[in-house]
Amino acid sequence: DYARAVAALARALDCPVLAEPLSGLRHGAAGLEADSRPNSHHFLAHGEALVRDAAFVTAQAPAWILRCGDAQVSRSLQTWLSQCLDQGTELLLLEGEGRWPDPERGTTLLLRGDTAATLAALAQAVAAKAPPAWMQAWRAAEQRAGDLARATLDAAGDDLWEGAVVADLLAALPAESRLFWGNSMAVRDGDSFSGLSAKPLEEHGNRGCSGIDGQLSTALGLAAAGSAEGRYSAALLGDLAAHHDLNALAAARELDCLLVVVNNGGGGIFEYLPARALPEYETGWLTPVPLVLAHGAAAYGVPYRRAASRAEFQAAIAEAVATGGPWLVEAVVERSESVARHRAYWQAVSGSES
Fold first, then answer.
1. Which of 98, 160, 163, 201 is the most interior residue, by most CB within 10 Å?
2. Model confidence over 296-310: pLDDT tens digits?
């Protein structure tokens, strides 16, 4: 009902929907937008990248923004929203669970009520659409960002990095699977590279204080519920998150779940933050751990595969899905090359390396 209500309001307004990876609007719900007209979609999956383009966002500054639910995953979206508020944009926050998820304290109007019902009522009340050029500009920017993301993936060839891990994992999962996005870089790479698809997936994440404790436990709890319903489950998380919660593998037995751990040598997210310049960066922020995941998986009787190339990763996850049961797949990423590919993508989209 929520996805249908969002789609109906977007069509009534002819306005873009910037769908984050935990919104439930990227995989499956996007099919609600399908019709016979070309370029008619309103759901966008590359908002994180396209709002980095200063010229674009200046030209397309909104008079108001309607935000549903939790605060944004993406720092670039957070920055864009703050800039919009500074320039007089009104922020309407629709929250149906009694909370006020607005860390910037920029809400102009807080709407309380059932989310789907409120969106449906708003769609009925729309008196006029936005000018056609508005949605056309957002669609063009979305198409360009998506093309550049695919070009970045193609340019990497068989090299394994997070963008390829996200794309290949989503392609391998059966319809109706449950997917858990880990915190730190996992959910952010999901934001950047998961795109839209008609294949329905149920996506989850632990945001809150955004820590990395308990990530495997949460993923396996979701997998237990999914297995009871005959549904496949998967999780994508980083090496430090796996290290913090490795004993959760004791709960993996007999569950149909694929656990993908991206090993980029520690807290890779800090490569994109000011801490990177500190002399104590390696020991105080990156904090790599000498974790041999193969031994950890063996200790709990979980089948394990190590992948250092895209072909190896595709083969490993295909084997896991086909065989069933619990699997741990370690995707080994060369951090400096990964950072370069992320920056090349952002540079291509916006001319900025932030």
1. 160
2. 999 999 999 999 999
